[in-house]
Amino acid sequence: MTDPTSILPQRSIGSSASTAPQSQGDLRTSGNGALPPRFNDVPEPDNNQEYALKEFYHLVRDMLQGGKGWPILRLALAIVVILIGNTIGQVRLNEWNGAFFDAVERRNSTAFLWQLVVFLGIIAFLLFIVVAQTWLQERLKIRLRERLTHLLLDAWLKPNRAYQLSLVGRSGAQPDQRMQEDCRLFAEFTTELGVGMLQAFTLLVSFIGVLWTLSSYASFEFRGEEIIIPGYMVWIAIGYAAMGSGLTWLVGRPLIRLNTIRYAREADLRFALVRVNESAESISLYAGERDERRSLNLVVDSVLQATRRLSGALARLTWITSGYGWLGIVVPILAAAPGYFAGRLTFGEMMMVVGAFNHVQGALRYFVDNFPKIADWRSALLRVTTFRRAATGLDRTIEENRRIEVSRHPEGWLSLNNLSIALSDGSIIIDDATAEVKAGERVLIIGVSGSGKSTLFRAIAGLWPWGAGQIQTPPPEEMMFLPQRPYLPLGTLRAALSYPAAPDAFDDELVRKALERCGLSDFLGVLDENRRWDQSLSLGQQQRVAFARVILHKPRWVFMDEATSALDDENQESMLSLFDNELAGASVLSIGHRPGLEEFHNRTLHIRKTEEGAILLAKPRPNPRKLALW
Ligand SMILES: Nc1ncnc2c1ncn2[C@@H]1O[C@H](COP(=O)(O)OP(=O)(O)OP(=O)(O)O)[C@@H](O)[C@H]1O
């Protein structure tokens, strides 16, 4: 395939000789050698226990860093105090158990009534403690969620990162789910499991002593001799709990992986639904509902399949958790029975043994009872930390690969020096291009569809770092980029016009003039209405909003990627004439196919495909009609 507009000999990527002269405004090729590696394979994390704990440690450390961790630490401290109060109340309640059942056994009505009064006192204390604990726990969940969400938002909304993350594979995918659901789950589970574990620990420490003391009352007869095993009920409780925990670990381990898979599938489903909703108009125009239904069925099936496998694993685990729960009713009584039948334990003391045994083995079995929740917590943790790691490690990942160096041009112009742009598979679409655009020039880039024009536009904007060579740019505050579909934020039209500045950044008069100049005076009356402007304005109107934005911001450099594609000829001319009037002197670099564009520019640069399939930037052909402007 030869291109009549190019004056350069054709060549393929990898050839080293340059045949083109290097002069200002010239796009030249010389061959750039090795291809950069793939950029979209950020490694997935190891799914082991040690890794999860390390990630948890790093995450908590970062959340508590700086003054922002204090509210969390204060709440955690208050919860510790409350938990100690709770444990004291529980020990007292267990003692009351002994006294109360002894009064029942002795048929002592006075003691019985007095114990009822004592009971009311203990319950009032415990009630206060439990309400306070619930309140503090809920506050802690909110604080943790707030901190974590901000941490992820900070990592995500760094310049260019959100876009680049969307290109780096699964670890950067579904930021919505990670910052909404996963952060919420992580905050809730961390609080519930953390408080539960601490409570289990304080109860264990307190009741193990009670159980040890009461164990000395239990004795066995062996060949006529009385045998007392020190703390034997403690050993039974430990053995019983250890067996339960071991079995649970064996049966419940697959839950962690299955949970992770389920969350990922759920996120895929949500993403697919959102995408259908966003593209509802096009889908309807193509009558593509049946096809969408078919694809959605596949995603729904994969969610259900993951949930089915999870429910099977949960049911298997219930054999253990429930079986253990029921055995737990009788095991402490069996353990205390030798002491009771030997007459060394009263009925009340046996009840105390039952209470203490249940607390001890309940605390030891904490892991068993909460296994599904721990699995959920671990999945949420890994999803949050993987995303954060992908976001914060992105710059390093890009650095490790070859990247395009972007810096300031000493004269405030734009220059591309031996620039190569790579795709995700490592292939190069633009190879070793060199060009310079001076202040005040208007340059058009043309090339066949898919030749890399938009990718070059992204590279100049700093969005596309993958490749090699240098781009020198004007000062960032002097540049404005106009993509084909302008971004209109949620909110008022005024906010959309002044974006990214604050909605009230420009005077009413300026805003009015800009709207009128861009043929949008019909919207003067609804400037402050909140609407989905991205849906209610036509693409041509949205493109004119983008030009009105340019009038307000007055950038010295404007980069356009098919920014007039939806305008009729008259409107296109009207918008481009801004650069002869309101924005006279501004430099323009645009990409486009529309007729009429070439006449507006001083120079045309050409992206050309060679026969070998490589794509090169070739020397421009001066636009004869605009030669006078050179
Ligand atoms: N995010 C991406 N990930 C992988 N490949 C991409 C991505 N964006 C673009 N490409 C590939 O880069 C090549 C150039 O795409 P680009 O959009 O830059 O072309 P273009 O010249 O602007 O096309 P058009 O004129 O049709 O808009 C294409 O082969 C495209 O598939």
TrEMBL record:
<feature type="region of interest" description="Disordered">
    <location>
        <begin position="1"/>
        <end position="44"/>
    </location>
</feature>
<dbReference type="InterPro" id="IPR003593">
    <property type="entry name" value="AAA+_ATPase"/>
</dbReference>
<feature type="compositionally biased region" description="Polar residues">
    <location>
        <begin position="1"/>
        <end position="32"/>
    </location>
</feature>
<feature type="transmembrane region" description="Helical">
    <location>
        <begin position="193"/>
        <end position="212"/>
    </location>
</feature>
<dbReference type="InterPro" id="IPR003439">
    <property type="entry name" value="ABC_transporter-like_ATP-bd"/>
</dbReference>
<dbReference type="InterPro" id="IPR011527">
    <property type="entry name" value="ABC1_TM_dom"/>
</dbReference>
<dbReference type="GO" id="GO:0005524">
    <property type="term" value="F:ATP binding"/>
</dbReference>
<keyword id="KW-0812">Transmembrane</keyword>
<feature type="transmembrane region" description="Helical">
    <location>
        <begin position="72"/>
        <end position="91"/>
    </location>
</feature>
<keyword id="KW-0547">Nucleotide-binding</keyword>
<keyword id="KW-0472">Membrane</keyword>
<dbReference type="Pfam" id="PF06472">
    <property type="entry name" value="ABC_membrane_2"/>
</dbReference>
<keyword id="KW-0813">Transport</keyword>
<dbReference type="InterPro" id="IPR050835">
    <property type="entry name" value="ABC_transporter_sub-D"/>
</dbReference>
<dbReference type="InterPro" id="IPR027417">
    <property type="entry name" value="P-loop_NTPase"/>
</dbReference>
<protein>
    <submittedName>
        <fullName>ABC transporter ATP-binding protein/permease</fullName>
    </submittedName>
</protein>
<dbReference type="InterPro" id="IPR036640">
    <property type="entry name" value="ABC1_TM_sf"/>
</dbReference>
<feature type="domain" description="ABC transmembrane type-1">
    <location>
        <begin position="77"/>
        <end position="376"/>
    </location>
</feature>
<keyword id="KW-0067">ATP-binding</keyword>
<dbReference type="InterPro" id="IPR017871">
    <property type="entry name" value="ABC_transporter-like_CS"/>
</dbReference>
<feature type="transmembrane region" description="Helical">
    <location>
        <begin position="232"/>
        <end position="252"/>
    </location>
</feature>
<dbReference type="Pfam" id="PF00005">
    <property type="entry name" value="ABC_tran"/>
</dbReference>
<keyword id="KW-1133">Transmembrane helix</keyword>
<feature type="transmembrane region" description="Helical">
    <location>
        <begin position="111"/>
        <end position="136"/>
    </location>
</feature>
<feature type="domain" description="ABC transporter">
    <location>
        <begin position="414"/>
        <end position="629"/>
    </location>
</feature>
<feature type="transmembrane region" description="Helical">
    <location>
        <begin position="317"/>
        <end position="341"/>
    </location>
</feature>
<comment type="similarity">
    <text>Belongs to the ABC transporter superfamily.</text>
</comment>
